[in-house]
Design brief:
Strand content: 15-25%
Number of domains: 2
Radius of gyration: 26 Å
Helix content: 25-40%
CATH topology of the largest domain: Ribosomal Protein L9, domain 2
Number of helices: 5
Shape: elongated
Structural class: alpha+beta
CATH superfamily of the largest domain: Ribosomal protein L9, C-terminal domain
Largest sheet: 4 strands, mixed
Strand order of the largest sheet: 4-9-8-6
Number of strands: 9
Length: 191
């Protein structure tokens, strides 16, 4: 199906371009969300008549997104989750959780604007990209920890998932001989 784009869409095209897309993508995403019109003569005339309004609205949205990006870029947010001793989370941190953390701090970012290819499943510092507008991106840091105290330690650069941090043991000092005796009789018979 051919559509006329009403705004810039990443990996597809600029505003005003006529592009060919799959029918399902057009029917289920582009047309219902008002991001495109079917490419026919009536809609082409309608687009040309509304072009100035659409471009002005796009500039306004981009400037609003840029203001939010300027504030958000480089900020760090703490997410407290339950995790095992190895640092593996019992659940995960998904885009919905990131949106809730940002909303709690006063930033209105939709979860569809959060670029998180896979959920976060371990404690630590994680970079998360935000696509606030087709032309504006920001990056925030999530400090995923078991407690606020642990998050503060991670922010200072401490590693909390190594054997040294968890057990107070130097991993380099561990040797197999410390755990078993190679000279011991394995079958239990005394000779």
């Amino acid at each position: 199906m051919e559509v006329i784009l009403l705004e810039r869409i990443a990996k597809l095209g600029q505003m005003g371009e006529t592009v060919k897309v799959r029918d399902g993508f057009a029917r289920n995403y582009l047309l219902p969300l008002g991001k495109a019109l079917r490419a026919n003569e009536a809609n082409k005339k309608r687009f040309e008549a509304e072009r100035a309004t659409l471009e002005a609205r796009n500039v306004e949205r981009r400037s609003e997104a840029q203001k939010i990006a300027d504030v958000l870029n480089g900020k760090s947010f703490v997410v407290v989750r339950a995790a095992g001793e190895t640092g593996q989370l019992y659940g995960s941190v998904a885009a919905r959780d990131v949106a809730e953390v940002l909303a709690a701090e006063g930033f209105n970012v939709g979860r569809n604007q959060i670029v998180l290819n896979t959920p976060i499943k371990s404690i630590g510092l994680h970079k998360v990209e935000l696509a606030l507008h087709a032309e504006v991106e920001a990056s925030v840091e999530l400090n995923v920890a078991r407690s606020a105290e642990e998050a503060a330690r991670q922010a200072k650069g401490e590693t909390l998932t190594s054997a040294d941090a968890i057990y107070g043991v130097d991993e380099d000092a561990l040797r197999p001989e410390d755990f078993f005796d190679p000279e011991a009789d394995r079958d239990g018979d005394e000779e």
